[in-house]
């Protein structure tokens, strides 16, 4: 497993090693023991899988606060996405900063989005499937969102037109109205 750090502490790109032959390839996408030895002792308890039919479908920016805050490990298994993490840990030197990583089946990259970061993605191809592991279960009462096109965050989604959004994402509060429930050093 190759690990690439990003500009935001804790947001990392995992690149599993692929073993190829004339049949195709095999990759181990997660191994709890090996990853703990590398400094990522995450107990994933829920797997999610989404299908976005159209290019330009945008999901996010989402988070879950304690007691059900989630680390997420995201990969794209069909199509293509720009996956985005935004640091919202009070006291962090990168508070309000974002990173984006292109995830595709071909590049095999996975983005680790730790607790205390907003998460979202936009599809770059039709029929895009995204799979992600979560370190806690979904809890509606802990669920939250920030507006995808917030001018303070100024995320470059590289869209050719308006995105396809859920009502929840279209009506999410602006970052200036967001009171982060996360601080540097939170582990819950």
What is the compact description of this entry?
The chain has 188 residues and is mainly β.
Describe the model.
- The protein is mainly beta and 188 residues long.
- Helix content is 5%, strand content 40%.
- It is built from two helices and 15 strands.
- The protein has a six-stranded antiparallel β-sheet with strand order 1-2-11-7-13-5, with no helix packed on it. The chain has a five-stranded antiparallel β-sheet with strand order 10-8-12-6-14, with no helix packed on it. Strands 3-4 form a two-stranded antiparallel sheet.
- It is globular and about 55 Å long.
- The model has no long low-confidence stretch (mean pLDDT 96).
């Amino acid at each position: 497993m190759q690990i690439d750090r990003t500009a935001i502490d804790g947001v990392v790109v995992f690149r599993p090693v692929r073993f190829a032959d004339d049949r195709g390839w095999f990759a181990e996408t997660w191994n709890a023991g090996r990853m703990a030895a590398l400094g990522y002792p995450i107990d994933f308890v829920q797997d999610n899988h989404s299908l976005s039919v159209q290019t330009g479908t945008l999901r996010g920016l989402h988070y879950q606060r304690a007691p059900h805050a989630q680390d997420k490990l995201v990969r794209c298994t069909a199509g293509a996405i720009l996956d985005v993490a935004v640091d919202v840990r009070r006291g962090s030197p990168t508070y309000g900063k974002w990173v984006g990583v292109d995830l595709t089946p071909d590049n095999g990259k996975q983005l680790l989005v730790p607790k205390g970061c907003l998460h979202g993605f936009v599809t770059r191809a039709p029929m895009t499937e995204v799979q992600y592991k979560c370190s806690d279960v979904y809890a509606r009462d802990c669920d939250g969102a920030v507006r995808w096109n917030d001018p303070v965050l100024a995320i470059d989604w590289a869209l050719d037109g308006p995105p396809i959004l859920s009502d929840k994402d279209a009506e999410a509060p602006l970052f200036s109205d967001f009171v982060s429930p996360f601080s540097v050093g939170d582990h819950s």
